[in-house]
């Protein structure tokens, strides 16, 4: 998938950007930018895409994305809607925002290594997420040196944790700015029609005015997966939420997730989750029952 490029400009008097994104009228688009980004999602569920990594996210999601690493978060609450207004706190900064050699200081060795690892995206554990999340929630209201110190504190906590690498070792994003608008439009179209079983490869190609073979090659080259695989992974993400949060039958879950028949749903679910939908629900219920036991 070719990725939409974003030009980020810090507000006057600031060397980096820090904001809460829910007020922005923007779709959840697959995008990249030269700046590194720390994203904290305190609430909600959905699908996290970072490079060729696709997985479910739950409340308390904290990721450090490296320079030009494609990423997006698709909230379950805004599937099919024009704008995605899920709550997320975001910090975006250039590697040289404090000078070309700032991170070369020996005291910042661990931070520098973490920023290098972030080229493939890093996901952090609950303890670090709780600490960094509290800092990020207050940062939009901070000013001057106080805000800068908060950012450095976040980076120090992330470096101490180390994080879990998300994108595969061989992942290399394909950039083609001339086609960015087409893929941005395709991603928006897929997201808006994800629950529609009539969503087809042909319809997506028509939306972006490309022939199917050219679009398929471009998509596969950049993501390592076909359009069908990509759509299936997003739909299985919706199904997982329904299995966890509702008592709907497996058939109803499959239909609400955009599958037109139960056998196709079961086959896709087992391929992606290595278990059946029924086993997935049972595993979740059992884990939830165990966590609810008094200590």
Automatic annotation (TrEMBL):
<keyword id="KW-0804">Transcription</keyword>
<dbReference type="GO" id="GO:0003700">
    <property type="term" value="F:DNA-binding transcription factor activity"/>
</dbReference>
<dbReference type="Pfam" id="PF12833">
    <property type="entry name" value="HTH_18"/>
</dbReference>
<dbReference type="GO" id="GO:0043565">
    <property type="term" value="F:sequence-specific DNA binding"/>
</dbReference>
<dbReference type="InterPro" id="IPR020449">
    <property type="entry name" value="Tscrpt_reg_AraC-type_HTH"/>
</dbReference>
<dbReference type="InterPro" id="IPR018060">
    <property type="entry name" value="HTH_AraC"/>
</dbReference>
<dbReference type="InterPro" id="IPR014710">
    <property type="entry name" value="RmlC-like_jellyroll"/>
</dbReference>
<keyword id="KW-0805">Transcription regulation</keyword>
<dbReference type="InterPro" id="IPR011051">
    <property type="entry name" value="RmlC_Cupin_sf"/>
</dbReference>
<protein>
    <submittedName>
        <fullName>Arabinose operon regulatory protein</fullName>
    </submittedName>
</protein>
<feature type="domain" description="HTH araC/xylS-type">
    <location>
        <begin position="184"/>
        <end position="283"/>
    </location>
</feature>
<dbReference type="InterPro" id="IPR009057">
    <property type="entry name" value="Homeodomain-like_sf"/>
</dbReference>
<dbReference type="InterPro" id="IPR018062">
    <property type="entry name" value="HTH_AraC-typ_CS"/>
</dbReference>
<keyword id="KW-0238">DNA-binding</keyword>
């Amino acid at each position: 998938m070719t990725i939409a490029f974003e030009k980020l400009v810090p507000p006057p008097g600031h060397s980096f950007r820090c904001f809460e994104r829910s007020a922005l009228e923007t779709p959840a688009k697959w995008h990249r930018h030269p700046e590194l980004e720390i994203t904290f999602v305190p609430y909600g569920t959905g699908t996290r895409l970072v490079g060729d990594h696709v997985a479910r996210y739950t409340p308390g999601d904290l990721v450090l994305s490296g320079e030009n690493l494609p990423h997006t978060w698709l909230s379950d609450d805004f599937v099919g809607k024009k704008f995605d207004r899920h709550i997320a706190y975001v910090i975006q900064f250039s590697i040289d925002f404090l000078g070309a050699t700032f991170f070369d200081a020996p005291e910042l060795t661990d931070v520098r290594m973490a920023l290098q690892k972030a080229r493939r995206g890093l996901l952090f554990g609950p303890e670090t997420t709780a600490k960094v999340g509290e800092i990020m929630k207050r940062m939009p209201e901070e000013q001057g040196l106080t805000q800068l110190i908060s950012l450095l504190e976040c980076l120090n906590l992330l470096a101490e944790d180390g994080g879990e690498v998300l994108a595969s070792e061989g992942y290399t994003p394909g950039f083609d700015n001339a086609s960015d608008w087409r893929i941005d439009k395709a991603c928006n179209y897929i997201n808006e029609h994800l629950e529609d079983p009539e969503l087809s490869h042909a319809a997506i190609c028509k939306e972006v005015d490309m022939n199917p073979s050219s679009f398929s090659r471009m998509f596969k080259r950049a993501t390592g997966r076909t359009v069908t695989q990509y759509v299936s992974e997003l739909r299985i993400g919706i199904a997982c939420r329904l299995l966890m949060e509702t008592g709907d039958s497996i058939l109803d879950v499959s239909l609400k997730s955009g599958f037109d028949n139960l056998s196709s749903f079961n086959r896709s679910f087992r391929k992606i989750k290595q278990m059946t939908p029924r086993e997935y629900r049972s595993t979740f219920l059992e884990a939830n029952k165990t966590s609810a036991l008094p200590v």
